[in-house]
Design a protein that fits this description.
200 residues, alpha/beta, seven-stranded mixed sheet, 9 helices, 7 strands
Length: 200
């Protein structure tokens, strides 16, 4: 049985931290998993910048409320979910993802959670499991699923490589050049057709 695993940010919705960087006027927060392979290092750095500027969950959620899925993302997801099982595997946090999942008609998402003080300061975060995307794909495979995966960033590569088929979607030139073995697409129609070919 096939199961499609999709990254969220950069694939279905805009990058939350980039949107927040633009809204807050803090250019350093533009850095994402497309730029930094070490997620713990990236998040620790982000939390330090938030603390320095006195910003917390409330301010980030206000920006997320204005974010819409990428053009064509909902139609792509609706079509895909009508054909096969789909789960979103993301290193984002449930406090960020929930309003975006509402705009996508509540697909299943596995993500992480933030530690938030009563003041709204983000004091830390809890990863669902180590190497969350690869670990989840392997667990699904152990239950008899053939995984097909799509993502855009460094933290997606392991799940793409471990799956029956893996696709880069709206990725960077550097990642595409480093991984020519992974088919790369820019349009939802192209990605859907590639997934459907594997499903047949």
């Amino acid at each position: 049985m096939n199961l499609v695993c999709l990254d969220m940010e950069g694939v279905l919705v805009p990058e939350i931290w980039i949107a927040f960087s633009q809204e807050s006027g803090i250019p350093e927060l533009c850095r994402t998993t497309r730029d930094e392979p070490n997620y713990d290092k990236l998040m620790t750095w982000r939390l330090g910048i938030l603390k320095e500027h006195g910003l917390g969950l409330r301010e980030i959620q206000a920006v997320i409320a204005k974010i819409d899925p990428l053009p064509g993302a909902k139609a792509f997801l609706d079509k895909l979910r009508a054909e096969t099982q789909v789960v979103i595997l993301s290193d984002t946090f449930e406090q960020f993802a929930r309003p975006l999942m509402a705009k996508l008609d509540w697909p299943t998402i596995f993500c992480n959670t933030l530690e938030v003080a009563p003041s709204g300061e983000i004091t830390g975060y809890q990863m669902r499991c180590e190497h969350s995307k690869l670990t989840t794909v392997k667990a699904l495979q152990s239950m008899g699923f053939d995984t097909i995966a799509a993502g855009d960033s460094f933290n997606d590569l392991a799940m793409l490589q471990a799956s029956k088929a893996g696709f880069l979607f709206k990725s960077t030139d550097a990642i595409k050049a480093a991984h020519p073995e992974l088919p790369a697409f820019e349009e939802f129609g192209e990605l859907l057709a590639a997934i459907e070919e594997v499903l047949d």
